[in-house]
Amino acid sequence: MTKVTKPHEVKRDWIIVDAEGKKFGRILTEVATLLRGKHKPSFTPNVDCGDYVIIINASKAVFSGNKLDAKLYHRHSGYFGSTKSEKMGELFASNPVKLYKLAVRGMLPKTNLGKDMLKKLKVYAGSEHPHTAQVSSVQGK
Q: How far apart are CA 107 and CA 82, in angstroms?
């Protein structure tokens, strides 16, 4: 018989991922898996059973190829002619936190469940973070 996890049975941990010197995409796939809860044996697709994830040193990630110059991120307000485009390199230099959240959001479900999972992601450009009391394990050493 298959065990189905209920929302009140989920045990969440706080996991730190250090992005310094690691490839950007590899970090994101690892983080999306942790947020979704697929690394746990009690994974249930319709329940948010993932962990809280803290990414530190976000501004020190490494990119392969010429993604920083070629890849574009678009946004639109809903009005005619209001489409704005920004290169990945410019977004990474000005606001690396936003870049990480946009990239991870694309890997999560496009539902209210995915929005709740994204709220458990905390990204910091430097090595300092205010969640020292919650942290239980460190990954990426």
A: 26
- Residue 91 to residue 115: CA distance in whole angstroms: 22
Per-residue pLDDT of the chain (141 residues; tens, 9 = 90+): 778 889 999 999 999 999 999 999 999 999 999 999 999 999 999 999 999 999 999 999 999 999 999 999 999 999 999 999 999 999 999 999 999 999 999 999 999 999 999 999 999 999 888 888 777 555 654
Sorted by where each starts, the structural domains of the chain and their CATH numbers stand as 11-64+97-139 (3.90.1180.10)
The pTM score is 0.88
Distance CA 31, CA 102 (A): 13
